[in-house]
Every structure is written in structure tokens, then in C-alpha cells.
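Lab meeting minutes (informal)
Scribe: AK
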Amino acid sequence: MVIADTGFWLALANPRDSYHKAASDWLDRSDEGLATTWPVVTETCHLLIVRIGAHAQQSFVRSLRQGAAEMAPPNADDLPRIEALMAKYADLPMDLADASLIILAERLGHGRILSTDERDFRTYRWKRHAPFENLLAI
């Protein structure tokens, strides 16, 4: 499973996005599954409506229903870690979606991610020291 961030989903949905070709090419050549979190899904839906329109949000939700990615929910037990991560990376700042992806990386035991947010995912660490490997970096 490779972790998918909001920017990856937005790039797939928008042919004018500078990462669209990289995202599409990765999806075409990979046989690995994707994992994301509910905060990422929420953020993606919001941005799809704002940037592209309701039809894009509906297509995204349909793709998830059809198995485009496994979705991991953060739970109440994750809140202390989320709060600590947001405090640690307050200078960026870190949002809930990004914090949830660090927790997902820790659960999966790897930091392989598809993200257009190169600066933040070069900075973030999972398991407090391990860097992310952004497979979408161009």
C-alpha cells in the first residue's frame, strides 16, 4: 500500500495540474494499492468542489466506493499524537489531513507517499525520525 495525499487526488482529477501526468503515469504503471485517510478524503472533496466542481467530487467518491484506496480512520486514541504533531510542525503549519497521514505511515510501517506537497513531506518524519519517500516528486 502506498499512501495517497490530497494533492495526488487533485492532480488526477485535473488535467491542467502540473502533477497530473506524474500522478497518472504512476497509477498506470503501478500494481500497488493505495491507502488514505478520512481527513484526506474530506479535504479532497472540499477542494474538488471549489476548484473543479461537484461532478469532480462525485467522481472521486465513486472511485473510492469502487476500491481506488483503502481508507483509514483516525480515532480518539490518535488525538494526543495528532496534537503533538501539529505542535511540532506548527511553523509549516501542519493540518489534520497531514497529521493523519503520518499516523497512517506509522501503522503501515513505511513512508512511501504520493504527494504534491514536496516541502512538507520532505520535512515531516514518521516514527519521529524516518523521512517520507515521495514517489510523486518531480
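Next up, CB showed the second protein from the same session:
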Amino acid sequence: MTPEFIIEFAKEAIMMTLMISMPMLMLGLIVGLIVSVFQAVTSIQEMTLSFVPKIIAVFAGLLFFAPWMLETFTEYTRRIIENIPLYIK
């Protein structure tokens, strides 16, 4: 294994992690911004108001995106396992 191979392998793993986590992160960000604007407009400073909607949005997004996330991760894992003989040369 060459250093270039290891760097490319790590880069691909990091990109896969970002791609799979991005929908949940974006939902949390969008709901957090909406709740923050709502709190600023109404002067409500309740701490639970910022966490509960984000948790609900992330869980709803997880239910919606779970099949895609599982399929993407399974394909990535399958490809890695199939290429193990190429990796050990």
C-alpha cells in the first residue's frame, strides 16, 4: 500500500461520512435558524425551545433518509470488501 492509496482511501471515507451525515446536519441547522429567528422576534429565551424542535426534525429526517443512508453505506462497504484482494498487493 502506497501513501497515496491510504490518503485516497481516507479521503473517500471522510467524504462518505460527510455525505451520509449532511441531511441530518442541514435539517438541524435550518430548524435551529428558524427557532432562533422566532426567539429573537418574540423575545422568548426558553432553552428547551431551541433543542426540542431540532431533535424532532433530525428524527423525522432520519426516518425519511434512513433507506438512502443505509443503501449508500452498504454499497460503500460492499465495494471495500470486494476490493480487499486489490488492497493487500
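CB comment: The chain has one domain: 3-87.
No objections, moving on.
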